[in-house]
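In this supplementary section we document a worked example of the pipeline. Step one takes a protein sequence of length 87 as its only input; no multiple sequence alignment statistics are reported here. Step two produces a three-dimensional model, which step three serialises into structure tokens for compact storage. The input and output of this example are shown verbatim.
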Amino acid sequence: MKVAKFPSDSAEVVQLNIGGQYYQTTVATLTGCSAYFSLLAEKNRVSTTVLDDGSYFIDRDGEAFGSLLSYMRTWHFSSTLTAAAVV
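The serialised model returned by step three reads:
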């Protein structure tokens, strides 16, 4: 485990470990509608934990994040979006 900067290249594919669940997406998808990920991607602003497998660790509910990631990809809420995901 190490601390590193989140990538800023919008085309770069990143692997996220959110609460033990793994997701792959691009920086552009994450930063397109999320102030949190936009801040992470700004150069030299915020560091985050990178696990030995190269994934970026975020200590949040992994199942709920799946619904949020689906929204970030399509800009449409899925019928499976849970109340926990929007809180």
